[in-house]
Amino acid sequence: MTGRSNRRDFLKKTAVLAAAGVQLARGPIVLGEGSPSAKLGMVLIGCGGRGTTAHLPNLARERLAAVVDCDESQSAKALQWLKDNAEKLKLENLDLSKVKAFTDYRRLFDELHKEFDAVVIATPDHQHALPCMMAIQRGKHVYCEKPLTHNIHEARVLGEAARRAGKVATQMGNQGLGTGGDQALAEYLQAGAIGRVTEVHTWHGFGDRFGGSFPRPPSEPVPAGLHWDEWIGPAPHRGYHKRCHPGYWHGYKDFGTGSLGGWGTHVWDAIDFALKLGYPTSVEVLQMDDASEERFPILTTIRFDFPARGSRPALKLFWYEGCRVKGKKLGPEEDNEDVSGINRPRLAAEIEKKYGRKLGGAGSLLVGEKGVMYASSHGAAPRIVPEEKHKEFPVPAQTLPRVKGGIWGDFLRACKDGGATPISNFADFAGPLLEAMYVGHLAVRAGIGKKVEWDGPNMKCTNLPELNPYVKRECRKGWAL
After folding, report:
1. pLDDT of 400-452, one tens digit each?
2. Distance, CA of 130 to CA of 161 (rounded, Å)
3. In a designed cystine with 195, which of 40, 74, 370, 392 is the match (CB 3.0 to 4.6 A)?
4. Residue 205 CB burial class (10 angstroms; 0-12, 13-18, ≥19)
5. The model's pTM
6. Contact yes or no for 304/465 (Cβ under 8 A)
7. 269 contact partners, CB below 8 Å, separation of at least 6
């Protein structure tokens, strides 16, 4: 069974798109010359929930040139949603008659590159790097949902490409950097609120969407209008089954990046922004449950060791993800273990019990020489623990600039005026952040207690060379960077 629609399916999908006023780009397109005036020509690649509700309205406020989704029904629904909500979203003069729909972003760049200025990418993780690279190489600004890449090598080459591109604006969509909380955390630490930080505990509790093994389901017929080969893209080919598309791809190593990529970007960003972590020197899995070759574990605790950085001391960072199976022993006992519920540090449970403060399913605790600070996900306002100490400490002066209009406004400004580099740009922040985080994926492959000695500048494991093939992936023909 293939992903091609029969004639009846084709007519049905075309009718839905036509109802939304969309031109489906199947054949050659005669491109127009010239560039947009005040409004930027925008393209959305990936029309799922995030792409539709979070990004389409912003793109339509500029000039929406095209949408791309390997699932024809998804792009049709997205544009119909935009049309139905135009008045509520205050989209004046919305005209979808000139919007083109593609099922393959490679054709978009080949056929329509003269008609747009920027792309927004909201596909599954394994399909982030290639359209980012194609945009940069053609001088198009690019905003990519987190995590920017699927693996370490992609993070490095995209960062380098963005640096070479100069005036091309790049931004990863980890929204916390646009709220001011990450800057506030850095200012508190610079002011000496808890002294020098020597230890960090950061976590994300999740269900089986991000991990947990199960047998690969048997292949199913490809739904009409879904172009399965395009969905697979650079990853190893497999038959379609609905456990991959649309929701469970996050937990598959071939397609997603698990909790570390999917949510680490929402909690690690503040730590990296404040402490300038750089590359870890070693990474080791302390606990792990329900690991498999195909999917990420349901629970993992990983220790990252970072060297001293200038006046900042060496730092131990513990990453906790997933949920614990009650009563099950997973590995060596750790003082940091919270033995109940979601996988969090013991310190989180102690703070909740002692001070009656709920710390939630995702956040970070920074341990300094003089105290502890808590920061939630997405740049939520950081606080010294306990609250009485926070109130006693003078609010630090704002020495770090805040972005205007959030992380999207920051990107749009850079596209239009070419001023300051976006805060989560690929070269200076997003790429290096993911390079460091994804060494954790190598440690997961190594297994419990096998320390990965990491040479960051050269992107290689020095003591377990069998892990080095996983630094990058071998892409299918036609999908290489």
Report:
1. 999 999 999 999 999 998 878 999 999 999 999 999 999 999 999 999 999 99
2. 12
3. 370
4. buried
5. 0.89
6. no
7. 174, 176, 177, 182, 379, 424, 429, 433
